[in-house]
Amino acid sequence: MILKSSFILSVAAVASYTCQAQSQLVVPQIMASAINMNGIEANFVFSPLSNNGGARVRVEVKSGLSKKFAVSPTGGFEYHIHVKPVGPGNDCTAAGGHLDPTNVGAAKCVAAKPDRCQEGDLSGKHGELKATETGAIAPISYNDKYIHFSGETTTIAGRSVVIHNNGTRVACGNIYPFDQASSLPSGSSEGASKAGSPDGDVRSQGSGASGGQLVATMAMAVAGTFFGALMAL
After folding, report:
1. Residue 51 lies in a domain
2. What is the pLDDT of residues 103-132, one digit of tens each?
3. How sure is the predictor about 179, in pLDDT bands with cuts at 50, 70 and 90?
């Protein structure tokens, strides 16, 4: 069997990255997630703030989050950092629950008290992605001092970003170092069969994935997971 060059490049990129994830990225670096599935194209960039003070987060949605598609009465889409990578075939359910190293659990996040929210509950702390007529959302940026780039249970390295439509997972993408995420071959996964699964009980799961578990899971996920190139900041 002859492997396509794009697949080989993806395997090499993941192998390189998972070694960094296992060492917990001792030197903080810009991380990114590029989502391109089910008509939803979005970029998330996490830039370390000085003195290990969290991250500057930049979000841009290029397509897919339209008012026609939105189910929530608020017309918004939730999005979170989940504890595990995306599974083969862009399986968003494989991402597990929210990144929650302090075990906040399913308690509702109050934006005014972000220290009491799950680390990965980005929409709870900073607001949902509001649907538009076209499905594109202009870039937004904010600081989140509770995001970490190191620590086995706290780092965002090797995890994933998941977008929800009233609780249902509709799109997802792994979190890579920015230079690697932007160099992966582009690829759309229209109609991925396992994207539209409800959160259910996994919403409150903790972040007990170890560096070794992240490596093993990402190795399994690479066969079905490809990413679109990030647009220039």
Report:
1. yes
2. 999 888 999 999 999 999 999 999 999 999
3. confident
CA distances from 184 to 69, 216, 229 (A): 29, 20, 7
Query: How many domains are contained in the chain?
Result: 1
Residue 232 lies inside a defined structural domain of this protein: no
Q: What is the pTM of this model?
A: 0.73
Contact 157, 205 (CB under 8 A): no
What three-state secondary structure class fits 102? coil
Residue 168: alpha-carbon gap to chain centroid: 15
CATH code of 136's domain: 2.60.40.200
Main-chain phi, psi angles of 222, to 5 degrees: -60, -30
Residue 114's domain comprises 5-224
The model's confidence at residue 196, banded by pLDDT at 50, 70 and 90, is low
Tokens 């509770």, residue located: 146
Q: In whole angstroms, what is the distance from residue 181 CA to residue 98 CA? A: 21
Contact, 35 vs 171, CB < 8 A? yes
